[in-house]
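Example complex used in Figure S2.
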Amino acid sequence: MADQNNDHLVQSDDPDHPANLIPRLCKQFYTLGWVTGTGGGTSIRKDEHVFIAPSGVQKELMQPENIFVLDFPTPKYPPSARKYIRKPLNLKPSACTPLFLATFERGAGCCIHTHSQWAVLVTLLTEKMHGKDACFEISTIEQIKGVPKGPGKGMHDFFDTLRIPIIENTAFEEDLTEHLEKAIEQYPDTYAVLVRRHGIYVWGDTPAKAKTLCESLDYLFQLAVEMHKLGLAWT
Amino acid sequence: MADQNNDHLVQSDDPDHPANLIPRLCKQFYTLGWVTGTGGGTSIRKDEHVFIAPSGVQKELMQPENIFVLDFPTPKYPPSARKYIRKPLNLKPSACTPLFLATFERGAGCCIHTHSQWAVLVTLLTEKMHGKDACFEISTIEQIKGVPKGPGKGMHDFFDTLRIPIIENTAFEEDLTEHLEKAIEQYPDTYAVLVRRHGIYVWGDTPAKAKTLCESLDYLFQLAVEMHKLGLAWT
Amino acid sequence: MADQNNDHLVQSDDPDHPANLIPRLCKQFYTLGWVTGTGGGTSIRKDEHVFIAPSGVQKELMQPENIFVLDFPTPKYPPSARKYIRKPLNLKPSACTPLFLATFERGAGCCIHTHSQWAVLVTLLTEKMHGKDACFEISTIEQIKGVPKGPGKGMHDFFDTLRIPIIENTAFEEDLTEHLEKAIEQYPDTYAVLVRRHGIYVWGDTPAKAKTLCESLDYLFQLAVEMHKLGLAWT
Amino acid sequence: MADQNNDHLVQSDDPDHPANLIPRLCKQFYTLGWVTGTGGGTSIRKDEHVFIAPSGVQKELMQPENIFVLDFPTPKYPPSARKYIRKPLNLKPSACTPLFLATFERGAGCCIHTHSQWAVLVTLLTEKMHGKDACFEISTIEQIKGVPKGPGKGMHDFFDTLRIPIIENTAFEEDLTEHLEKAIEQYPDTYAVLVRRHGIYVWGDTPAKAKTLCESLDYLFQLAVEMHKLGLAWT
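Predicted assembly (940 residues):
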């Protein structure tokens, strides 16, 4: 019997293989409250393959065999060349897929999408204070040093102001792609885009960089909400 | 020796058998703070049997042998046909049983009852803002898409307004049944009913659907409480 | 070699033996944030022995061999008959011991002391709102039904008002004993006494009853603090 | 093959050996939210060696082989005598190293650095209420008794006022050393120094003392923030 569905692509003894790492990360993100109720998603690019968590699966129970694999020859390759080379039976691909691919085209190796309540709340507070076109801004908090300044530019300094663009949410997740690409054009150094009333997309060169950046940003969002409650300014 | 108490009904090697799944879910709900101090409950219908967590057992320590089994020939069958076919020694059946059965009569496969503090707080805030007859309302938050619009109607859209009815609490849990049934008549599309100063009942076709819906709603309640603290409107 | 230190008293294969149960409960209480920084304590009476967690040990790392054992012939026996029959080397007995014994004299089988922040905050809010002599009061919250009305009196009804006495803190923990005994005299039905700026003592006939009561009360304290932040009255 | 990198220094079967204990503590601190996004750090001095968690490693995944070892003949020995005798390949030493060493020179056996949000928030609230030169002050809270009064002076009494100095943050972590040393000179009894907009350094004679002190202080900072929200004074 041939491995017609390319199951070998998600079978590995290496705990850091994307098919093993995505379930482990999803379980951890569930504990952090980022992917409640099957919300959010995670994707990793490795060589010419993209591995994606499916839609609608309880994140803390995800298994390697639930993972979709997409052929992704090289960044900037015509999108028509991308096709699923492994689809788990009875599962639907994530609606976040086009957004993940948009970050991989820009060189990312991993992209994480969460519904973190702190992320949602800072999008609402920013709108309330500065209007729809404002980005989230915070400065002189040590944890900013966990956020890169831009590709090849090192990390933020303590005295820098961190800016994360905010895009408006759309009825369908895939329609966010255009907004996300526009935000990246406007903020070419950003590794994250907030989505109003929805959550955040965070990416990085490696899974470790994307995941630790996601943690640092969530720390800053939670701190910002608490600071707002206590009458303390963000910048 | 005959299995006079039908113990075989709660003995299975399948981790997703209701007698194994209910303890696993209860343990998880304990960690989420939903079933503190033996509060709350969980029930699963499988074929013609209903499995119910007992009253008064520490949820994080529940075992398959603690589970009650009720004969439940088919929905809409005369209630008199329902009787316990397995009762654990020294345990009392859950006072939530009539409420669970009311949802099973309407086709549910799993019903979850929590004492979530976020659920209690939104019932109090809704009363304070809009009076006793108001339901909980929230709109344009992405997580709403994790809540079904009604049987066979798909999920809520981002721009929909989610409405969850609120019923008044009663001195005895079983007396809630009538209120719950009335709320379902009034909101025939709902899969959840809030109980003022008490908690919430959430159900679904399957345990996974009931559990992930319960998570999405709890996320929305927590967000709503935080939004209220920050002066942000729910709709 | 004789077992001169009565080590056999804390060696048992029964996971529910006090010498095994106290470490398990302490680990769970640590996770709940009740016994941070070696604060708080737990004691269980079994037959004529009282088992007590030591002072100064990290609660999540406690081991059966760390447990003190006190001879406690029967309640109401002259206190002079009580003496340690097992003392772990290099450990100090808990300063809570006289308070635990005071509850055992009144028939308790288990007493738990936590430094829960919610408990501390309700003692401060009660003082601010109603003065030093007021007790904590809350009513018409379902979780009240998890609190017994008094020995042999069943649980609180939903429409009852729950009252927990509050005593003033003292410089030395053992000096609290007199205040605790006075509070029990004044509130003979109570199974718990709050200590201002300090925490709470909770007891019950069995470890399970004391632990689930402690959970229900902590739930109510947390809810009360959140209600206060949201401008919602407790009664 | 000689053990040219002194790997034997981080290989031990003793679970409490610094090379095993540091990863275990870091994992626990991650769960407590103290070292999110690779922030914070931990160091233990044992005899004439100092063991230090590296920079940039996910704290919950740290392994003994990730640990740096520094020669530290005796406190007060000329700093020039200190050199790394084990460096993990591909890892950078922690920027906190000079601060850890400053506490070891004063006799500490373990130093912990966290980015706790509660610590950050009390530095901001103290500045807002009392200006840049004020220290954090709190009194008459039982948990204060978990904080030592100074070397050889026992623990704080309930009626004492606890004071923790606050230093201003600097662009580079190593530049904090001078501020930390000055704060210790000014508050010779302190075992902790808060860093504005950054976090806290906490130390003790042993890892257990430093860790439980860190817990007690974090408890007090969290309580202080909640008290401030509720309009309750700290002293």
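Chains C and A do not touch (no CB pair under 8 Å). Chain C has five helices and ten strands.
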